[in-house]
Amino acid sequence: MNFINSRNRMRNVVQCLLVLVLTFTSSLSYAQGKKISGIVLDDTGLELPGVSVLEKGTTNGTVTSIDGKFQMSVGKNATIVVSFIGFATQEITVGNQTDFKIEMASDVQQLDQVVVVGYGTKSVKDVTGSIVSVRPDELAKAPVANFDQALSGRMAGVQVTSTDGQPGSGMQIVIRGANSVTGDNSPLYVVDGIPMESFDPGMISTRDIESYDVLKDASASAIYGSRGANGVIIITTKGGKSGPSKVSVNSSVGVQWIQNRLDVMNPYDFVVLQQEVANAKGGESIDKFKEHWVDPELYRNKKGTNWQDEIFREAIMKNLNVSMSGGNSKTKHYVSFDFLNQQGTMIETGYEKYNGRLKLDHNLTDKIKVGVNMNYSVMKQTGDKVAGNNRVSILADAITFRPVEPVNDDGLQNGIDLEDPNNMRFNPVKTLKNTDRQTDWNVFRANAYADFTLAKGLNLKLTGGYVSDNRRQELFYGQETLEGYKGANGINATLTDRRYYTLSTSNVLTYKTKIQDHKFTGMLGYEFSSRDSDWFRAKNTHMPLDNLGVDNIGLGEEPIVPESYAEKSTLLSYFSRVDYSFREKYLLTASFRMDGSSKFLGKNKWGYFPSFSFGWRMIEESFVKDLNLFSNLKFRAGWGATGNNRIPTYSAHSQMNADTDNGYNFAGQYSKGIYMTNLADKNLKWETTYQYNAGLDMGFFDNRLNVNVDVYKKNTVDLLLMRSMAPSTSFKSVVANIGEIENKGLEVAITSRNIDTEDFKWTTNFNISFNRNKTVKLNDGESFMLTNPEWNYKYTEYQYITEVGSPVGQIYGLLSDGLYQVDDFNYVNGEGYVLKDNITDNGGAVVPGSVKYKDLNNDNTIDERDRTVIGNPEPKHFGGINNSFKYKNWDFSFLFQWSYGNDILNANRIVFESPSIKENHNFYASVADRYTPTNPTNDIHIIRGEKAVLGYAPEGNKVSDRVVEDGSYLKLKTVSLGYNFSKKLLKKTCFSKARVYASAQNLWTLTNYSGYDPEVSVGKYGALTPGLDYSAYPVSSTVTFGVDLTF
Amino acid sequence: MQRSFLIIFAVLSVLFTSCESELDQTPLSTISPDNFYRNEADCRLALNAVYSDVGNRYTYGEQLPIQFMVGTDEAVFSRSYNSWTVGLYIHNASTVDLENTWRTLYRGINSANLLLENLPDAEFTEESRKLRYEAETRFLRAFFYFDLVRWWGGVPLRTASVGDATANDIARSSAEDVYNFIITELEAVAPNLPLPSEEIEYGRVSRTAAWGLLARVYMTKAGVPLKHMPAESYAKVNEYCDLIINSGEHNLIENYEDVFMNEIKGINNDTEVIFEVQFENQRSAGIREDGKHGNLNGIMCQQKDSPYAYAFTYAGLSLINSYDQDNDERYDWNVANFKVDKKGDVKIQKNRYEWFPGKFRRIQKVDNADGSYSWIGLEPGDLDKNYTGINFPIIRYSDILLMKAEALNELDKTSEAVPFMNQVRNRAGLANVDADLVATAADFHEELMTERLREFCFEGIRKHDLIRWGVLVEKLAELKTEMEAASVASSREWLYRSSINVAEKHYLMPIPLKEMNENKLMEQNPLWK
After folding, report:
1. How confident is the model at residue A111 (pLDDT cuts 50, 70, 90)?
2. Beta pairing partners, A325
3. Burial A771-806 (b: 16+ CB within 10 A, else e)
4. Which residue of B has its CA nearest to A598?
5. What predicted TM-score, i.e. pTM, was given to this entire model?
6. Do B155 and A728 touch (CB under 8 A)?
């Protein structure tokens, strides 16, 4: 192609892209020389279309046809390079041969893999930072709704835990420990080169993922500057490949269930409790008991109702995925459609999503490539929110509802007096059936790029992206809900619309060159993104009908004042990176980024994020080679700075606003009032994390055994923290840069191809991570921060502490000392039991059987000064081990995942194991063995003792180490068994590939934890309140069956 | 190719320069203090917010006149558990109610400071309006400081708005300085406030409100614990009371109960009330400018969908016993011996010590012809279970009369004082006070203390009165004696826990713990150290 041609084309690009696409003609030229031909087969002996065959050192090349054949002319003494994704690249010297039969071997040698490093790719062997990848086909094997649920246990240093099991709710991903105390610790997602704010894993079909790479250390993630501090997850989606069109269909159907139930008292024990309560209350209550319940013996062996069985079900999950891809050397396309319908294991809950995607790549000329990538996602999450409501809870209702009805009707509905204005309970089945809560996402993502080869080795890539993310939330309380029946708003409906628009452009200039032993890559980039978001809420109450739901909220009789909000933030960045290597032995990488953010003011808008890293491929040194021990040995070390700007958009601005309680009535006439709602620190700046990383990559036995070890230390300074203010300023807190957090750790990853024969292959992946988190500094002069996780409005005591010198968010409370026993008292005639002098009370009046705590400050009473650290939710280590087997046409794999040494605050037990004189309240089965004068146990307290003293601890003294449990677990996370039909069998069909499989998720758990599942953390305040379990939606187990077809 | 380079870089450079300015973003849905207070409309919105903090739940909507005020001879907490700690005298520096009230009073002060700093540059069409806005704002700021100094003693005197975190640390001013500030401010702004007869909107601060507040401020500072220049102060009380009495703006309205019926029904042409906090039932529209009067401290009403009342307080036995029950019209209104149960039936409470405060009531008992009872709701509008629209009086004309009487008595002019007390008694249907009871200044004082109890019970006044007279502990001891005499069941001895718990230190509140922790210049009240 000559210069004039290309210039004309360039002009056409600018003028009319479409015309050019249509009129484009190919101009491939062939080198002169010897003609060769051949066939390329995969490791199962099947023809492989679309394989690139290139004459080494030239641009001369071709791809194999549908039957795997190729033909080309090559020069004398040529070497051909045969490559195809997923297979090891081969170089073959042509010599005199003219006909070739080339067998490609599956690429299991990680060293030849390419990883995405941010604005570019790198061969694994050139990497100097800490990057970990997951094979997308492994993710696709797990029967889960979204890919994030398949990640746990697969990557060293990446802790993936479910907060709870509500369908469609995202996993919590923390890379190398939490940096932020009050901020967000989730990593940055970069999808097809575009950094995404508020990314939801449901927006991408797992089967569309081509590669999944995680940048863990700062030397790798610093190129993402202000958003890189929590690590970066880079997802590249599949594109079309040259070769004949290929259609893949995957369909699966599965069943999910909740493995266990919390043990509640059976009808007999429950009625015995009712009798005891009636006797304790005396008077009318005893008569009522006799009239309705009559005698506990009547309920012995009665089956009763376990309300958990009423709200849980076996649920179906269906998934269909169709994709079509193909292309030629000019144009490649990839189209896919993904559908998932997941019923929740709790009735009336569920998740549904549709993803449609189109990716087109086109070579305008051999120097210009253009492409578009579009994705449209529709997601629907339905069902009442199970966790997080601190007043009413479906699970609490299910556990406390009476398991049996009295023989003589007492006129109550399942034990509830609906007319009692102070009753907060409601039939959980009715609540679920008559609450319509639905969130709909409509997300459109598109990006387009143009890639220009400006000169040899010099590349310019322009990318533009657009995301439109609309979320609509509907909430409707029908008549048969607590709200509808007796709430202040009656039957009511709320509609909330949220929209996020992100526009971004990213422009990168890359230069690659090699001068003798010196390899050099330089990159220079510029990026801008702007994000608009707004929301609007309309609510109407006292609806006369409950059958139209939110579809006609105009029906309501008392509308609530509508609300709206809008905000905009922008980010402007310049960045560059230099990679240098000498003889592929010494590797150097340096990067620098500067980010300007609209969230900060003046000179604080700009943050600077440098990084340096160094690699030494020691295997290239003769003294290492001579050891004959290693097949690979590389040392890596790096340092870098990254930032975090995840604070509310306008935190640096003092703001005034009108609230619903800041107006006034003059002569009965309402007027709005405007006041200063928040005070800002005008000097607010980035939170910066400095991280050191050192790693060693070792390969043994011809790289059949690979061991990667990384150690790191990261310090987050200028922590964006809510600084407490003196109440006389009238403000509660100001977002300010104070405090410091340290994380240090060790990660080991081992990959081993244990057996690698034609018929039988066995691979093991193992990883383990140790992270130690430490609070170095807090607010000026502050040595600790206390947090009340507010899981229930009645238990308003501090339950978490973040203390200088200790991990962020430790569990805090009293030390249990069992129960008071008769020995602790002197019996005084006329007065009853009087506590002995040297024995502490529990902060209130006590009797034998009352809850007893350790009096740490020896003042003979229990108060906030007796609280101490009672648990640490940070695991000592966590990890996973995956084994994959392949025997002839069978494949089998299983993944175990564990977490060890983390504590859980099982707040359920504070409520459900503390009997009281409330009638018709059921409790955990353990309550049947409570303290009574004839059963002086030391565990569950007495209901009520003499002088009407209640056995439970006084308000403010409820949380103790009694309910802190070891949350260690070992989980059989994923199991998958597949059968691949042989090529021979398929020859007669239209399929080129067919696999049937069964897979399972969360099948088995080994744990001492007494709740539904140790994988839980529903604390409201993120890193400050980890490992909290209260009314969490339990995580489901799943088994699915499916088929993968390609034709 | 060269040209295409040029095009690309031209496009890029345009992008670069245009984006740089995009980095300046200001809030879209909220207002920056720098762009506010432009004109009268803005300042009016800002002033409304200052008023709002008078009616906040932590100030006069609930906390100050209800939770903080229970635990005197006028009312006791009616539950056995320990939630209303201030009224039970078991509060300490970490009691969150204290912090909330303290913070809200300071929020009103900060809003006022901001408005006062910006008012001079705002554009008003009439300069007199600006002067009036300024006067109202300074009145309200002084009003907030008066509550702070009464409850806590000397407090940080913030007269400039909090601009950033550097304003965090501030030392306490002496109580005397705070009182001087309040008086100077009120005296300066009074001339700029309109008289009620000139007033357009009922509920706004008037000149007589400033005079009335001045009388109360002087009265309070002359008492315990400050006892600041008593003679001069009482003379000032007399002076300001006279200004109101002679203004012709206010009078006692004919029926005592109508004063409160007006507040309950939201009637806004009351000549007896000099300053009040206005509330309205608007919760169904999502507006929260309502209060808890009649709900927490009213006549118990437990029926679903009724004008609900939790009734966390019982009327004190001292109060009940202080009335001439046959003749005093205030007795029937202020004390109620019935409740409405879950079924909606009126139930008579047999124990006198379990009667309810009736002053701010949501319901009225109706005597049926057949001797049975039923009830009617009194509040207009869309009712909420937990909140009410009942307005709350801060200063009434009868208080002016009794303050004048008290001041004259303190100035040894007892005989001049008696007629003013009699005005209040006569309106309540009582004859003039028995001459024997007011023979000496000490006797008069004794009678006046009871008269004020009968007249102002549940109006957020009693505890302040007992404190300034230095009789809080003594009067609570008397209450205990009276309750013991009424043979309160031994299982209900907790009803007079307050009497047992109260001590000398309760003449002042402890500075909230959070203030102590965060404000490095703060010092705790001596008895709370």
Report:
1. very low
2. A246, A334
3. bebbbebbbeebebbebbbebbeebebbbbbbbeeb
4. B23
5. 0.84
6. yes
